[in-house]
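Here is one chain, start to finish.
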Amino acid sequence: MNPLSIKGFTPIVMNKQIGLLVFFLMLGTLTVAQHKPHFDYDKLLTRIDLSLRKGNKKALRDLGTLLDVSDYKEKVLHLFKENVIFPDREISLNGQTTKQQFLDFYYSEENNIYFSPTAHVFYTEGLENISVDYKIQPIRSLPNSNEASTLRIKSADIYKSLSKGQYELVLQEISDIALIENQEAFEILKKLSEEKMILRAKGEYRKQLSMALVRALSNFPNELSLTRILELLEEGHIPSPAAQKYLTILTNVNLSHQE
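Its structure:
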């Protein structure tokens, strides 16, 4: 006998088939949901941050592509704040900045973006032409711990202050760095003494900045300090009497002219 002809059998079979179909559909959905890969943005941002610290320009592009990821936008902007100095007239990095806006800026200015190993930041060629008001701040005390972190922060602060023409702040930061008498502090000061934005500072600040760096370098009695001070003298960045004073400190030999 055909089972489909038995009264009530067809609905039972059909209901069972529908139930199995629904079950397998639900199982498939659950399996896909369980195996759907979760992208680890935190890990990606860590890798990008490391690349930025090494001066990898393309890491800026990679960071910019995450500006439209709403849950991570604050972290992305924080990394930009720590690693770049771009004038607002070129790109304003804030909560309204989109991925496309940044990528348009990046690809149009890629050849004009540079990395400063001194300040550990990226900047554009146009920074030297920024005109701003000067502002004097009170002297700040140095933290007593984590010298490497302190030096990195102060280096970045110096570069940002230079970009804004805030030379009084730069003078204070140079003095602060000179108090941290280790090799990293010396390397930062020596590189700063070669920075174009210091050697081309406006007016009297050019001389003041050079003299501040000479004073700071004299805290590190080595051949490189001596050589750099002599170079600054030869290049006309510091006056001869001042150079003699600090060269005397370094060499312990009175270099002033005797009558």
